[in-house]
Amino acid sequence: xxxxxxxxxxxxxGLDEIAYGGLLPQRAYxxxxxxxxxxxxxxxxxxxxxxxxxxxYVSLGENGGQVRAQSQQLKIPDGKIQFADGVHFMRLTDxxxxxxxxxxxxxxxxxxxxxxxSTGVEEIDALLGGGIERGTVSxxxxxxxxxxTTLGMQIMRTAALRGERAVVYSFEEQPRILKHRCRSLSxxxxxxxxxxxxxxxxxxxxxxxxxxxxxSVREEVEINNTRLVMLDSLSGYKLSVGRLSVAxxxxxxxxxxxxxYLVSRGVTxxxxxxxxxxxxxxxxxxxxxxxxxxxxxxxxxxxxxxxxLRKTIGxxxxxxxxxxxxxxxxxxxxxxxxxxxxxxxxxxxxxxxPHFVDTHRNQTAPExxxx
Length: 371
Fold this sequence. Notes:
Protein name: AAA family ATPase
Domain KaiC: 115-353
Pfam families: ATPase
InterPro entries: AAA+_ATPase, Circadian_clock_KaiC-rel, KaiC-like_dom, KaiC_dom, P-loop_NTPase
Largest sheet: 9 strands, mixed
Shape: elongated
CATH superfamily of the largest domain: P-loop containing nucleotide triphosphate hydrolases
CATH topology of the largest domain: Rossmann fold
Radius of gyration: 26 Å
């Protein structure tokens, strides 16, 4: 006989996590909901999870054959007991009920060496004061087409090459297109993907709730020992998970919880953020109010120079170390990323219209130069 201290599994892993291990024995529980909400399915999960004794199901609506046919589809997985209160997302599938506990990070910290990770590009490492620190959140920010995804993939590929498992959650680009693009830039991914050292997870629009995505990320970290996670991009994340978010949820708050969880496990996070303006007087680090999440902000920006559209890269913020305050020219070439020396003697770069400044009075203006 079960003692009052022991708990009885509901048969649904996520629900057991929410209930701190299951239901208290010798209690009466009311399952409430509208038609098709999952009441019968949950009851069958509960009965199927019992390994000792005989369960009794009394139905006033469905006949025995229907109940038995439905119960044969159920799969009862083993799971860990968890970090969760409040409202949680639930989905009914052909294998029964799935519950995805809301991710609420705790104060536990996994052991994490304060290691600086190279991006694989010497000049970008110089900008960053050596690289990106393990267990931090970095935001790569810039307008469309400026090179955020390419830079992110460079960092993830470098991590995978040195033996750290890296996972990219792509909300906007199919893996085959991403692989082809990286291959054309001399950044091949095929071997790393085949070895499962690098993994690209496509997230279709309106297919995940924030809780489901957090569950997927948790499995990557806790089962596969993933050490780097990249979200490409924030706007895609908001579009994909926002419509299935529990009523009243702030999607950015859910992202905050996910980042806190990952950092507490020593995981390095990259978030790609698209800003609306290409150039102009108003310079924003991010368009979505996520600057507070970032330990590091790398800003990619277009500039107009000699009637051509050029790109620059710079570091706007870094909490964990000093960094280079200058901007550098940034190019995406068939041979990979090309980053120039610090741009000196230029003014108006952030406005998108750089020009050389003569620092000596009564001196002839310098000859026209290009970045």
